[in-house]
Amino acid sequence: MKLTAEHFVPSEYDEQTLERIIEINELPVILSIFNADDNLEEILVDVNQTMEHITELNKKGIQLISDKLFKSYSKKYSISREEFAEDFNLVSLYFTGDGEVEFTYEGNEDIFGEQIVCISLVNGRFEKDIAVEG
Q1: What's the rounded Cα separation, in Å, for the pair 33 and 69?
Q2: Distance CA 82, CA 66 (A)
Q3: Considering Cα of 129, then 133, then 109, then 25, what sign does the dihedral take?
Q4: CA 95, CA 126: separation in Å to the nearest integer?
Q5: Nearest Cα to Cα of residue 15 among 34, 29, 30, 42
Q6: What is the per-residue pLDDT across 25-39, written as a single tens digit (0 to 9) for each?
Q7: The dihedral sign for the CA sequence 132, 20, 90, 95
Q8: Which residues contact 9 (CB under 8 A, 6 or more apart)?
Q9: pLDDT in tens, 93-105
Q10: CB-based burial of residue 55 (10 Å sphere; 0-12 exposed, 13-18 middle, 19+ buried)?
Q11: pTM for the full predicted model
């Protein structure tokens, strides 16, 4: 389904952000668009291109996160690489309006607690840096 402005509602938290809840792998994911420059139609092109490939992009994001973080966390926790990767769930996609999409994940609660893990997709390519926040 092609997403249009009518599919989004204003955020309760920021008047320049539009939101929609979608399902990916039967889990809710918040899809947010930051529209500060009033270029919604251009951002929607990015949104729809990303959504066309969301399954592959989600898998790639989880793989990159696992590759970066597994060694650090596996020393303290007895977990296989596969189990580590399987515990990541995409919780939000944030389109910044400048060709960037922030993918935000929750990981294993015993390992990450309330922390979230973010990786950015810029112009169709994931950046190498990963942020663990919270």
Answers
A1: 28
A2: 9
A3: negative
A4: 14
A5: 34
A6: 899 999 999 998 888
A7: negative
A8: 18, 19, 20
A9: 999 988 899 999 9
A10: exposed
A11: 0.92
